[in-house]
Amino acid sequence: MELTGKERIWNEYQKEIAGDNYFYARSCIRQTFFPGSEWAYLDILRNKLNKQVTEDPRHTTCTGIGYHTDVVPAETTMTVVARHFALMTEAGCENMTPSCVTSFGLYTEILETWKHHPEIEEKIREFLWKSTKREFKKPANLAHTSDIIYKFRNEIAALAPHRLQDVHTGRPLRGVDHIGCHYAKMFPAQGIGGAEFPAVLSGLIQAWGGETVDYPERRHCCGFGFRNYLVMANRGFSVANSKKKFESMQAYEPDFIVANCPGCAMFLDKWQYTLSEMEGVTYGPNGFGIPVFTYEELTALVLGYDPWEIGLQMHQVAVEPFLDKIGIAYDPAAKYLNSRGEPMGQPACPTYMKVIK
Amino acid sequence: MNIVIIGGGPAGSEAAYRLAGEGYTVDLVEKENSIGGNLNNWYQLFPDRKPASEVVQGLQQHLNHPGITLHIDTEAIGITESAPGKFSVKLSNNTVLHSAAVLLATGYKLFDAGRKEEYGYGIYKRVITSAELENLFTNHSLATVYGDTPQRIGFIHCVGSRDEKICNYHCSKLCCITAIKQAIEVREMLPEAEIFCFYMDMRMFGPGYEELYREAQEQHNIKFIRGRLSEAAENINGQVVIKVEDTLVGKPLRMSLDLMVLMVGMEAAAGSGTLAGSVQIPLYPNGFIRPADPHTGTNLTARPGIFTAGSCTSPMNLTDTLTDARSAAWQIKKWLTGPDKQ
Amino acid sequence: MPTLWGYSISAARSIDYDKNDPLFRRWLAIASPSSQLCIGCGGCTAACSAGNLTEFNIRRLQMLVKRGESRETAEQLHKCMLCGKCLLVCPRGVDTRQMILSMKRFLREHDQ
After folding, report:
1. Is A222 helix (H, G, I), strand (E, B) or coil?
2. Is B342 inside a domain boundary?
3. Which residues on C lie below 8 Å from A278 (Cβ)?
């Protein structure tokens, strides 16, 4: 593989990312599945990188899940997003940074729609005014939060006590990057590195001392797909997509997977359990799975955050083998203790996939 | 009377020879350091496997005519019409040629395969273009950059053609028959290899082409799968994994290849647009020069006195290019000897 | 365990050319050389007596064999009535009747 060829493509897909003063839009599901991710992101930006990040508790879902399952009409979705823009405008911000890849894709799609159809934008402004008496300015800059981490990847590397390397052997860890479909497949020019050879996460892995794995099914969807996974009868087809990816990446013996989309991270983590229960297969070494991280978690880990403080005990696949490799100290006994030090219960052990209690 | 011909490929060279034979003085302007154009990058020609160098040599010999002045390493920058039928062609060396007729024979350029990002050209080392394969034939070795001899080779048709995504709606016409010719050449060098062509339609428009397609199936065991490549990736062994739909079977198909050859299409040469633009000659949306009339006005343009020959008007094979050049020579002679000329 | 989970994992539909057994397709190329000449026009299937009444599609079945997929062919091939109309219409001169008999022989010899 010729890396210079990729770098040529990466150079063609660079985008403007604001340097400070962000309005933060949370994801509906990231906090449920990976509860420390968004907190860690905000803490890193505010307290490690000294950036101004504003958020508003009145911010709601973008309705992306409903939009993509055909239960929310486009005009409703656009009006809800217009309200987000209004909250941003009222907060005196102009740099929108959604945490969710689907929100990012949806915001991009809506801004692009309005660019070509100003009459639709006018109609949505009217809907918003009638329903909420709000007005808005369109964001001057729209970036996914993984773009922000990418922008500061070298600053983070300079602050990081850990590298993505095996502390025992010095071997760079092999990371699989998984990019949410809505990040760049709809609008390749809006993604760092484009849609075919995205660099937004592989750039992090490389900046922090790891190696990226380019495996045949790298660009394949994880299978989340909203309407597919939400309907139980369709899940077999949905899970099969994740399975296809695991089988394709397994030969490279990856040390971890990192994803920038809340749904993908959840799918790639939890479905390893499902696949092990249904078919008895595991994809990591010695009966373990392949650890899966959100990019916020990975950033927090190299910056030295406590694994249990950023919610890694909520992962289905055991993260301890990864922590041991990069030399992160953790207290095994504290894994299932809450912030007051009380036991919060433990999940049952899977039948086939190994975990660490 | 003097004629300026811009472009020293087959069309320009052939027209220069024919016009010189009619007693005209010709200035032939070529931006490269030798004549022959894209033909210099080809090893053998379809359908008869004539060495391309033979054709180039023939064209070159014809240019040793006292009536022809060859300007190599020289680019024509613009054309102006000082008075009706009086043209000045400015060259990159700052000289100006005056003429009573100008022939545009600016040809085509090959599609830059790197623009189809998902095919991994320039990234996966087992992905090459059809032009690069010709170079391998010239060197009589099909060894990949890894040094191995490929056991499974796939030819991907329509790369840069019939593809809205890269803004080329047109069919480049020659890639189908080129793929067949190249597949047969590969077969002759690698009798045991598996060879596939992935096509959308087989467009065998020329004499002997369909027959060669049949020969490829019947005698050379070349397999044809109807389906367009969606994306290529690299597997852990460094092979290229391709995804197509076998549209005649109705199922997605994947396979690994040791060598993937991209049949790059033809695009208008950059010079065509600049020169035609300098005298307000309209282009087709794909950048090729628009003739005065697609049926009865080929070789003529919207500006009397400026003519075209060869693939600057559309993708064209060598046979048609040479025929078109001779036709252009006749049109120019008619223009220069017409009733309104002295 | 679809009853516990409510679903089972879908099998891949795509032809995995690398993994498919090449035996049948290699054998067919030798036993029926004219089958190599097919250009997929579908004249045979349009003319087919069985294909007009059943799912039998001889054009597709022989292509599947060439891709290493024999299951459908094994299930369907007995529907051919050997009327020979396909032979009459083929523009490439594929000896379709001989090709079908060859495929039947292979399947019989390999207990499929």
Report:
1. coil
2. no
3. 1, 5, 8-9
Same domain, yes or no: B261 and B273:
no
Asked if A216 is an interface residue toward chain B (Cβ–Cβ < 8 A), one would say yes
Among the listed residues A281, A197, A293, A294, the one whose alpha carbon sits nearest the alpha carbon of residue A239: A281
Q: Give the residue on C whose Cα is nearest the Cα of B250.
A: C60
**pLDDT tens readout for residues B23-45:** 999 999 999 999 999 999 999 99
CATH code for the domain defined by A153-334: 3.40.50.11810
Q: Average pLDDT of A100-128?
A: 97
- Identify the bridge partners of residue B254 per DSSP, sorted by sequence position: B243, C16
| B102 shares its domain with B184 | no
Residues B132 and B227 in one domain: yes
Q: What is the mean pLDDT of residues A309-314?
A: 95
Specify the 3-state DSSP secondary structure of B283: strand
Per the listing, tokens 């003097």 go with B2
Q: Are B103 and B308 in contact (CB under 8 A)?
A: yes
Q: How far is CA B341 from CA A248, B27, B335, in A?
A: 74, 21, 8
Residue B97, helix vs strand vs coil: strand
On whether residue B310 sits in a domain, the answer given is yes
Burial call B165-184: b when 16+ CB within 10 Å, e when fewer: eeebebbbbbbbbbbbbbbb
- pLDDT for the residue A154: 98
| Residue B259 placed within a domain | yes
Q: Which domains are assigned to chain C?
A: 20-109 (1.10.1060.10)
Query: A15-145 maps to which CATH number?
Result: 1.20.1050.140
CB-based burial of residue B289 (10 Å sphere; 0-12 exposed, 13-18 middle, 19+ buried)? buried
CB of C6 within 8 Å of a chain A CB? The answer is yes
Q: Determine, yes or no, domain membership for B314.
A: yes
Cβ distance of A236 and C1 shorter than 8 Å? no
Q: What are phi and psi of A144, to 5 degrees?
A: -75, 155
